[in-house]
Amino acid sequence: MTQENSPAPACLAPLPASAPVRFTPPAGGWDTHVHMIGLPEHYPMVANRHYDPPPVGVDDFIRMLDCAGLRYGLLVQVSVHGTDNRLVLEALRARPDRLRGVAVIDADTPDSDLAELKAAGVVGTRIQTVAGGGVGPEHIDAVAARCAELGWHLQLCLKGDEYPALMPKLLKLTIPFVIDHMGWFDIAKGFGGEGFQSVLHLARNADCMVKILGPFRRSAGSAPWTDTLPYARALIEAAPERMVWGSDWPHVGIFETGRLPQYGMLLDWLYETTSDPVLLRKILVENPARFYGLPPGAGRAAQPG
After folding, report:
1. pTM
2. Among 79, 152, 288, 293, who pairs with 147 as Cys (CB 3.0-4.6 Å)?
C-alpha cells in the first residue's frame, strides 16, 4: 500500500475529555474500541483511505480513560494505517499496565511480526470492509488459521448486509470472533432488517462477543441517539454475557461538528441501554476482562502519565 497526497478529506479532531453524568463506571472498567493515529511522515497512510485523521497518541487516550473513570483500553488498529501495526505495538509497550490490542494482519504477515505483537499484548486481528485500508472477509479462513496458532480472536467490522451470507461460515469458526459497531446495522431497514437479525442470531448462538458502540454512526439523528437504543437493548437482552462497550475514540471519519460525540455522553448512552448495575458491571468489567484478559502489566504499579 502506498500513500498519495491528500486523497481523502480531513476529518475532525475528537472533543476534549469528558466524564459521564448519569452514573459512575464500576472499578476496572474497559473501553474496548479505540484507535491510535500517527503523523503521516512517520506512519504512512494507505492510498485508499476514506479520511485524513489528525494524530492522537497513547497519552491522549490514557487521559481520556482517567477522566471517564475507566481503567483499561483495547487499541484497535485503525484503517488508515493498513497492516502497519507499529503504533499499536509502541502504545502497548508504553502502557502494559492499561492496554491490550487488536492488530490487522494478512496471510503474508511474517511469523516474527506476529510473535512480537503477541508478546506486546495483541490478542486478535481485524477483518474490515467499512473503510479503505482493511483486510476483507475473503481472507477469513487464512487469517483465522493464523489466529488459531496464536490463541487470538477475529474482530469483524463489516456492513450489516454482509452478515447474512457470512453467518454459516461464522457459526463454524473454531476460534472466537467479535462483531464490532453492533453489526453496523442499517437503521433505515428497521429492527427486522436481515442484517441486524443475523447479528442477533450470532450473538445468541456463536462463540462471539458484540461491541455495543457507535450510536453516533448508526443513528439517523444527533445525540443522544435514542433511535439506536432498541438495537443495543435487544443485543444485551439476547446475550448479556457476550456484550462489551467501546467508545470508538477518536471518532474518525466525522466531518460535521454536530455529529462529533462527547466521550462521557457515550457512556451515558450505555447507561440508557441498561441502568442495571449488575449488567453495567458485566458489560464494562467482567466480560472484557474474561474475553481479552487483563493487560500483562495490570498488577504492576501504574506508570506516570
Report:
1. 0.95
2. 152
